[in-house]
Here is the input.
Amino acid sequence: MINILNHFSNELFVGFGWTLLASFLTLVFSLIFGIFIALLEVIPHKVANKIGRGYVEIFRNIPLLIIVMFFYLIVPKYIIQLNGFTAGTIGLFLYTSAFIAEIIRSGIQSVSGGQMEGARSTGMTYKQAMQYIILPQAMKIVIPPLGNQFVNLIKDSSILAFVAGFDLMYQANAIASVTFDTMNSYFIIGILYLIITMPLSYYMRYLEKKLA
Amino acid sequence: MKKIIWPIALLFSALMLTGCGKSVTDQSALKNVRSSNTITWAVEGDKKLFSLIDIRDDQEKGFDIDMAKAITREILGPKGQARFTLATSQSRIPLLKNGNVDAVIATLTITPERAKIISFSKPYFRAGKSLLVNKDSDVKSVRDLNGKTVIGIVGDNSVEVIKKVAPKAKVVAMQDYGQAVSALKSHQGDALTSDNGILYGLAAQSAGSLEVRGGTFTKEPYGIAVNQNQEPFHRAINRAVDKIQRSGEYNRLIKKWFGQVPGFNYKEMYYK
Amino acid sequence: MQTWIDALSWLNFGFLLKGLAVTLYISLVSIVLSFILGSVLGIIRYSKIKFISAAVGFVIDLVRNLPLLLIIFFTYFGMPKIGYRPSAITSAIIAMTIFESSMLAEIVRSGIQSVSEGQMEGARSTGMSFVQALWYIILPQAYRHMIPTIIGQFVSLIKDTSLATIIVVPELMQHAQVIYGQNANYIVPMFAALTLLYFIICFTLSMAGSYLHKHMAS
Here is the structure.
């Protein structure tokens, strides 16, 4: 185990970096896109509702692996060249957005009720009421489930290994196939994953308690 | 304090489990296979000619499979069972080392690095690396690879080989051959490198869109792998291979699987 | 068009369905096992039994915070070290059960906790024991609240079985890969079939979940 740490610290470091980068990019973009989809679902517009709902249902109900492989194997063949990291991150982003949208939609709907009417009656437009009254409250409610989703997304980023995305899991496979020391290679990256995910999920539990 | 002791104790017990358990690989493999009358082989499922899953009946078929069956018969007699566990290039050695299987027959090249941790039988197929490219590719041989992207397989030694023959090439490793061919066709790489026999099989599957180019640029025979310190089993396998080669069965199998491959001189592979 | 017809011939489609059967088998067994194990672990964790709850809680947190892919590898390659040689399918079931139990345990724990505030004391003050209060008062309510989350977790489980392709489990994803691995032209039809098959199963289950939720809430 010490051997692997000595010889492959570079690979592990690089893998750690790519995993963090994929997770970070996915977090930022799927938060924005997720809010957008959630708004499509709640605004008073039937077609928008259908589109938003459709997006969530489709992407929540197919495996991440299929989405990622689609972007790695099929999109480059017919549309545009994407490398493994990009394809993997786009897949992860589209998939995670659906879950974030679902969380935020239920957050908005749990606030809405009388608050929307109240705000509208003071002369606010729908957009203003949403922006200043509903969304800020909804975001507070959804922080713990969003945090859990973020932990899931970090774990899910290991899907990049399937498309040569250079992440931790990919590096572990590579190290294991050079050293033949499967268990220890995976053990080490297991600890590296835990270093990212454990504090985060403990912090989320703490927040959950505090906000409750 | 209690909060700290528990995690540490657990981590240690996890370490013990992964590190020093008394494993199946310590027991005598030959005794095990004799008493169960079964040899469990790690084979691949995505290599035409060597070992490919037949969609019609869900069975693996190819040269490696027939060799495994013949060896099983030699060691255990006509009633002996050959059980096949599907492996990828990446998982075939871990499957053996961790004790999931008794032996590996999966287009496994004999290399000094591998020989340090597993035992190889005498060579049973004379293979060498070559290149598979899209028909319209400008790659003619390994000399054209610098600056290009080469697709390899995780767990294959192609990554190291390419680093030697074309240091400026970029190598991406895919999980299996299905993935790798799809990636090549999607132009995720300019060439796919692997052993000639495998590549001819892939080219034959591609309905004319892929071709093998540049001849072989390495000599890398395949061996059957067993765990180290399993001398009786190792010797039994070598004796079986020997017998199959001398009896003419080997040449029959070569002809059966490679006789029809266009551009491949199968007679060079004969045991003489 | 001809490619699609060839790709989804009876032969190939039958092969896909064989894979689907394995996917469903792994999912079903893992769902049942992880529901039981997850519930037990969640209750143990909630119960605050000295040492045991803390230890169980820590192990759950470890497993929950690791990628499923890693758990699959550990299970498949680790089992023979403790003297058991599982098939790839059995390994997948064990790995899915370990992973999903830990996810469910956390859902169950927080579900019970959100109901039990106040209710536990109330029930205890009527002379019920801790176990009685839990069984008759808390758990029925908690599980009713948890239905959507638990069903959502089962949907994830079904989708996640596709990851088992990495240890070559002959499930749906793997069988599709075998087909398009042998004829790369079939890749688009195969992805279409995969998407459709997974979607139908998961969407039906999701719908059943929300129906059940509405039904039981009223």
User: Anything to note?
Assistant: Residues 114 and 193 of chain A are 43 Å apart (CA to CA). Residues 20-167 of chain A form a domain with the MetI-like fold fold (CATH 1.10.3720.10). Chain A touches chain B at residues 1, 72-74, 76-77, 81, 83-84, 161-162, 164, 173-174, 176-178, 180, 182-184, 187 (CB under 8 Å).
